[in-house]
From TrEMBL:
This is Membrane protein implicated in regulation of membrane protease activity. One of its GO terms (molecular function) is peptidase activity. It is found in: Membrane. The chain crosses the membrane at residues 6-23, 53-71. It comes from the Bacteria. It is a multi-pass membrane protein. One of its GO terms (biological process) is proteolysis. Pfam families: NfeD (PF01957). The lineage of its organism: Bacteria, Bacillati, Actinomycetota, Actinomycetes, Kitasatosporales. InterPro entries: Membrane_assoc_protease (IPR052165), NA-bd_OB-fold (IPR012340), NfeD-like_C (IPR002810). Residues 86-143 form the NfeD-like C-terminal domain. GO terms for cellular component: plasma membrane. Keywords: Hydrolase, Membrane, Protease, Transmembrane, Transmembrane helix.
Length: 144
């Protein structure tokens, strides 16, 4: 055991920290693994055990202190571009077939023909009228 260089032990430690990273998906383990790799580099260039531990702690803490807040802020942001059904909500459409309270009709939305029904069952929309899409339920647009 004494024949193995310190940098190898640090790399073994980095690999060992990679296992819980993959199993638990906790990025902190990855940051600790990067700290262990930095300590292995320090050992490889001849740094003593105190320097190795110091580099491990400083790199790990620095990564956790910088990367975690950035990742948390990024996770809270909404996507800039809505896709799918979410992209259709709030858009305008043109009535192609009368939409009234009791029965649905047809609208042209984003270049496609959709079945539609009124949000307010007492409201009716005539052909050619512009309407707003407030929701999508299955293949039916809810308009007002």
């Amino acid at each position: 055991m004494n024949d193995i260089d310190a940098w190898v032990w640090w790399l073994v430690g980095a690999a060992a920290l990679g296992i819980p990273l993959v199993v638990t998906a906790m990025p902190e383990f990855g940051m600790l693994a990067v700290g262990a790799v930095a300590a292995a580099v320090t050992a490889g260039i001849g740094g003593g055990i105190v320097a190795q531990v110091l580099v491990f702690v400083l790199v790990s803490v620095a990564l956790i202190a910088v990367v975690r807040p950035l990742a948390n802020r990024h996770a809270r942001q909404r996507p800039e571009h809505a896709t799918g059904i979410d992209a259709l909500k709030g858009r305008q459409a043109v009535v192609l077939e009368r939409v009234d309270g009791g029965e649905g009709g047809r609208i042209k939305l984003a270049g496609e023909i959709w079945s539609a029904r009124a949000l307010d069952s007492g409201q009716a929309y005539d052909v050619g009228q512009s309407v707003d899409v407030v929701d999508i339920e299955g293949a039916t647009a809810i308009i007002m």
